[in-house]
């Protein structure tokens, strides 16, 4: 079963996108569709066809966001989490070769590999939940098991050092 968890910041980003699509972008595109429809023959009106398709895409995304925001559970930081890896944690891992990586556990809606965000449903996140600094963790990957040591755990971004 997949987790329907999200950080408060992630939920706010989705909510902001929904409000923008519904209150700003959709009305703009609706107006373009109306203007293009007023020009006459819709079958050969590229502007009408393009904006109608865009309107369907917007409506699809709006429906998805409304449904998704209702089923998501916001997980806020709790002081009891300190010192252990739980949802929302930033952490640094090191392997036997001395390679270091930094990640954060988030919900699937927040996944961003460029930021080092991994989902709570990933094998690595599942293996790390509840672990603490200096623990050794074996993560099952498609290429076989990988060993990692936990160097650092925090509940604020690494760039806030």
Automatic annotation (TrEMBL):
Which Gene3D superfamilies does the record match to this protein? Answer: Transcription elongation factor, GreA/GreB, C-terminal domain, Transcription elongation factor, GreA/GreB, N-terminal domain
Domain of life of the organism encoding this protein? Bacteria
Task: Give an example GO molecular function.
Answer: translation elongation factor activity
* Record keywords, A-Z: DNA-binding, Elongation factor, Protein biosynthesis, Transcription, Transcription regulation
What sequence ranges are listed for the domain Transcription elongation factor GreA/GreB C-terminal?
81-155
Which residues are in the Transcription elongation factor GreA/GreB N-terminal domain?
A: 5-74
Asked if the record carries the keyword Iron, the reply is: no
List, alphabetically, the SUPFAM superfamilies matched: FKBP-like, GreA transcript cleavage protein, N-terminal domain
GO biological process terms, semicolon-separated: DNA-templated transcription elongation; regulation of DNA-templated transcription elongation
What InterPro entries does its record include?
GreA/GreB_C_sf (IPR036953), TF_GreA/GreB_CS (IPR018151), Tscrpt_elong_fac_GreA/B (IPR028624), Tscrpt_elong_fac_GreA/B_C (IPR001437), Tscrpt_elong_fac_GreA/B_fam (IPR023459), Tscrpt_elong_fac_GreA/B_N (IPR022691), Tscrpt_elong_fac_GreA/B_N_sf (IPR036805), Tscrpt_elong_fac_GreB (IPR006358)
The keyword Oxidoreductase appears for this protein = no
**In which family does this protein belong, per the annotation?**
Belongs to the GreA/GreB family. GreB subfamily.
The entry's function note states: Necessary for efficient RNA polymerase transcription elongation past template-encoded arresting sites. The arresting sites in DNA have the property of trapping a certain fraction of elongating RNA polymerases that pass through, resulting in locked ternary complexes. Cleavage of the nascent transcript by cleavage factors such as GreA or GreB allows the resumption of elongation from the new 3'terminus. GreB releases sequences of up to 9 nucleotides in length.
Q: Which PANTHER family does this UniProt record tie to the protein?
A: TRANSCRIPTION ELONGATION FACTOR GREA, TRANSCRIPTION ELONGATION FACTOR GREB
Q: What is this protein called?
A: Transcription elongation factor GreB
């Amino acid at each position: 079963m997949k987790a329907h968890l999200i950080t408060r910041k992630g939920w706010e980003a989705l909510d902001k996108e929904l409000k923008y699509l519904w209150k700003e972008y959709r009305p703009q595109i609706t107006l373009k569709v109306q203007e293009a429809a007023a020009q006459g023959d819709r079958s050969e009106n590229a502007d009408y066809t393009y904006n109608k398709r865009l309107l369907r895409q917007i409506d699809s995304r709006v429906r998805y966001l409304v449904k998704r925001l209702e089923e998501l559970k916001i997980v806020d930081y709790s002081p009891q989490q300190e010192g252990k890896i739980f949802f929302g944690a930033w952490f640094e891992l090191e392997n036997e070769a001395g390679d270091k990586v930094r990640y954060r556990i988030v919900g699937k809606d927040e996944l961003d590999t460029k930021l080092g965000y991994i989902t709570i449903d990933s094998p690595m996140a599942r293996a790390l939940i509840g672990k603490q600094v200096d623990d050794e963790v074996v993560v099952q990957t498609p290429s076989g098991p990988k060993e990692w040591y936990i160097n650092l755990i925090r509940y604020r971004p690494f760039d806030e050092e």
